[in-house]
Amino acid sequence: MKNIVLVLAAMVAVTWMASAVNGAEFSSEVRSLMDGYATEAKADDPSFNGFSAERGRELFYSKRMHSKGKERGCTSCHTEDPTQVGRTQVGKRIEPISPAVTPERFTEARKVRKWFGRNCKWVLERQCTPREKGDFLTFMMSLAD
Ligand code: HEC
Hints:
By secondary structure, the protein is mainly alpha-helical. Helix content is 55%, strand content 7%. It binds heme C.
């Protein structure tokens, strides 16, 4: 009996440590999306060795001069503070992008893919690379630790 309790306690501890290291949990469908991004990132660059919250943070805060002549960044709509309500260019409310505040963030693969598609194009005038997408999601999920 005592051994069982010890084994259970060890399992709980290991699970807890794993979740502490990995930050907030991805839903299983977004987990597979991330696995796909990792496979593609590795194919693009064999020295790829995992996503980085720091690079994701840089992508979120970076600004780029658009060919239409105005600076654009992810923060143009999601604001400089991921915990705050954002605004589209026509002033429509966007719930805070941080999953710490909006728990349903980044839980649906279809939604994530759709908005990476639109927003990367709007900001960067190209699609985000698989590595950029994985880095961005890693950064966002780290906010919900
Ligand atoms: C022109 C305004 C705008 C800009 C700029 C913008 N976004 Fe968004 N973003 C939105 C809107 C609108 C939504 C969808 C509404 C919502 O989820 O509340 C959204 C949602 C998302 C989602 C899906 C969130 C989820 O819940 O699954 C991702 C991922 C995302 N944006 C990434 C980015 C990235 C990366 C950038 C910078 C390259 C960026 N966005 C810049 C407007 C913008």
